[in-house]
Amino acid sequence: xxxxxxAIRNVQVGGRPWVQVLHEWVITVDHKRLGILxxxxxxTFLVIAxxxxxIIRIQLMYPHNQFVSPQVFNRxxxxxxxxxxxxxxxxxxxGFANYLVPxxxxxxxxxxxxxxxxxxxxxxxxxxxxxxxxxxxSGLYGAGNAPDIGWWAYAPLPSRAFSPGPxxxxxxxxxxxxxxxxxxxxxxxxxTILCLRCPGMRLGRMPLLAWLILVMSxxxxxxxxxxxxxxxxxxxxxxLGGHFFDTQAGGSATLWMHFFWIFGHPEVYILVIPxxxxxxxxxxxxxxxxxxxxxxxxxxxxxxxFVSMSVWAHHMFTIGMNSYANSFFAITSMVxxxxxxxxxxxxxxxxxxxxxxxxxxMLFCIAFLFQFLIAGLTGIMQAxxxxxxxxxxxxxxxxHFHYVIVGGILCAIFGAFYxxxxxxxxxxMSERLGKWHFWLFVLGFHMTFDVMHFPxxxxxxxxxxxxxxxxxxxxxxxxxxIGAFIQGMAILVFxxxxxxxxWKGDIAGNDPWDAWTLEWSVSSPPPxxxxxxxxTVASRRPLWDLxxxxxxxxxxx
Amino acid sequence: MSAANSMATPALETPEGWSxxxxxxxxxxxxxxxxSAIFTIFVTAYLYYVGKSLTxxxxxxxxxxxxxxxxxxxxxxxTIHFAGRSLARGTRGAFLGLWALTIILGALFxxxxxxxxxxxxxxxxxxxxTNLFGTTYYSLVGLHAFHVTAGLVMLFIVLMFGLAxxxxxxxxARVGVLSMYWHFVDSVWVVVFTVVYIIGR
Lengths: 557, 201
Description:
A: 557 residues; mainly alpha; Cytochrome C Oxidase, Chain A; B: Four Helix Bundle (Hemerythrin (Met), subunit A); 72% helix; elongated
């Protein structure tokens, strides 16, 4: 699509009444629009949950600080965790998956467009319900009735006795509903990837992103469903007087832990596998080389998918399992490091000897590689049960999993934004602001989360409201908080870049990065039907074949 | 890169024998995997709490295996299978008859569950809040009954369309997807029956 056409289209959009435009977006079943809705929704909650993190960090900046009350502090860390996992990272990943998978496999839409819309609106309803808790119940006073039971809601905290009023119900129902949305999305992605590939795109020729999204969706089926089941049990306990997690009647609090972490640990991989997918698409393009070891990458991902489902109880070493269980879960947790290490070597192998272009998407992917590696290493440390007995529930753990989620997953997501923004909007994001975003974010990230390991080693428990001066935590906490604000500034630069580039960015054209997968063959933004004629592919890099008919990949694969 | 959509269309022939699975089948298979995980968690909870109730009544005292209604449900898997085959062959009468029979058998099963619950509540005083057995029993059997109910609603919708003459051999694949779901509900009952009425007692 030429820039003239683009201008005409924009005029048409601007000329229609906004109610009509809004209506179209609400009733849409187009995978691209739903993808954008997912992403915008996630960005909104990113800012909200980021503000909650800021409140937590202000509270912990100084010893004996009383910026918020203990009750509000509890609500803040609960809402921060729940929001970031269920309403930021999951939707943003499903947004990208929704947008990209049909384009990458040469399909015109998802397998079930209406189920797709339904899944999005369920997820949206979950988030809105969770935040309605601030207004519902006793109203805005004292942060309303927001849940305050921690994002894993260990029994018996969410029972009626310890959690009167509706605050825990908001949490349970919001998570349950959003979980149904996630399951619906996963079913849809699986059916799309298995049934709608364009002619010639055998499983072995799919872009790695499609493969990894397939594995992630499979894992959703096995891992999010136990959480739904556990939430249903919790609702039975709360509303029908059941005793699943009621220790007074013989119920078991440990069972809740198991059910929660059977979901909770694979969830980390549900989040990180799409991040791997982004990196696997971006690194080759900016290294000007095909991905190194494609079949091994697929095999390693599937291996991670399986192994990660048998590691959950490493979150529970301190509850006193027997030594066989401890050994089993310690070993499996360490084993996950092997396929993950293979992936890291393969990305480095892809960059090795390539003509690396240090554009913003690539910078974030390189940061991802380093930071994810360190996150993995602290993970291996904690997989060792005796070490974990010392550090479980300390700030060391908080630093570790933020290293995974912020340093790993979020950086890959930022890379994905810079990489696919031109496809979604038709304009490139500003490289200048992008560099500012990157360096500010990396600086802030390392100030916060490198330093955060140390108060943990010095014994600072997580979720603590405030602390005594003179334990060696004071300066460290101050540095952590300052780093958090630098990250906040970086996010503001990012949001500004998203907004400014939408109007002022350079026109991208179909294929600004000289990339090789099918989404770059259509106009930016793609037409509603994606492909005028369904393409046929003969290799893993169909656009390479097209651009280099004298030396196509199909000759070697 | 000025070429627009045509760019992605190299002059390649569609490879011979290129066919992909039906999206309905794959979607239903994925749903069944997810549902199996949900049931697994409920079954795990049931088994974990067997014999851990602090008060009565216990399963041994009050449960009676619903053999007749189990036979009803399991044979409905056969009737729906043959209904699907009749549809594919285009024998409309046989399809509708077998389909209606499936619904009747499923409804009979639900009636059986209802009768059993009525007996447990009014004769034995076992409610969901009575003890752990009550909580896990009603949750697990109730979850299954909920799936039977959902299945019956969908079967009924197909029956209505069938009576209106809208279901022909063309819809065979779609009806097959529903039939997959029904087989799943039946096989879950085999597990629930084993756990609740054999192991749990």
